[in-house]
Amino acid sequence: MGLKKYRPLTPSLRYKISGDFAELTAGKPEKSLIVSTKRSGGRNNTGKMTIRYIGGGHKKAIRLIDFKRDKDGIEGIVKTIEYDPNRSARIALVFYKDGEKRYIIAPQGLQVDQKIMSGKNANPEIGNTLFLSEIPLGTIIHNIELRPGQGAALARSAGSYAQLTAREGKYAVLRMPSGEVRMILITCKATIGAVSNPDHNLEVHGKAGRRRWLGRRPRNRPVAMNPVDHPMGGGEGRASGGHPRSRKGIPAKGYKTRYKAKASNKHIIERRKK
User: Fold this and answer.
1) Going by CATH, does the domain composed of 3-201+260-270 fall within 3.30.470.20?
2) Is 142 in contact with 148 (CB distance < 8 Å)?
3) What is d(CA 128, CA 115) in angstroms, rounded to the nearest whole number?
4) How far apart are CA 202 and CA 19, in angstroms?
5) DSSP summary character for residue 216
6) pLDDT for 14-48, tens place per residue?
7) Of the residues 50, 84, 243, 273, which has the maximum number of CB atoms within 10 A of its CB?
8) Burial zone of 75 (CB within 10 Å; 0-12 exposed, 13-18 middle, 19+ buried)
9) Structure pTM?
10) Do β-strands 62-63 and 101-105 pair in parallel, antiparallel, or remain unpaired?
11) Contacts of 24 by beta carbon, 8 Å cutoff, 6+ apart
């Protein structure tokens, strides 16, 4: 998994940096594990734009990813490592011994023909999914459940991971990708290793057109708007725009929006770094 730079044959190639896709072993997805999807373009059922800056983009199919990893005790073999246009990480196609095929998020170091397993009998090796009660302390993990049986909710994007630091009674203590330290029930599952494609954040699009291929339309600055459109709009000349805030008036840059009496506050030991 590396990066690819381009000779500046055109202005857009001068700064472009993309992945080299060297780790991929298949060009087309498994037909039985894809579903078609319809783009909204940011419009609701009446055709009114409810979300700005969305529209267009290349057609893509949804790959059905197994976030629950509930085939406990059944061995699977990794057949391919594939590209998924719907996420930053790579995905792996797994053939299980009972004949079922599933996609999983591919961790760093996962190889084709490697055997993986989930459940209590699994070893703490790359790609295996275990309960937090079974994972050795200090292990790097990803695809972490917040509630038992819910399916992976945390540390799913490219290069992300958490670390299991301690166990206290029925809770495991994890250091999250944001730096937050929190408790999660030891009956929740997590997968060993860090998520693949760690160089994703170093990629540079190089031109606006590549963002359009991703379905993202131009985003205009609030200070360039009129007062009727945004709290930071208006003014003579290049006005600063006042205090940074959202379109609905919520301040940015340090203003806390988390509900003070949120039930999960008791599970957070240390907040993320500002």
Assistant:
1) no
2) no
3) 9
4) 9
5) B
6) 999 999 999 999 989 999 999 999 999 999 999 99
7) 84
8) middle
9) 0.91
10) unpaired
11) 81, 82, 83, 90
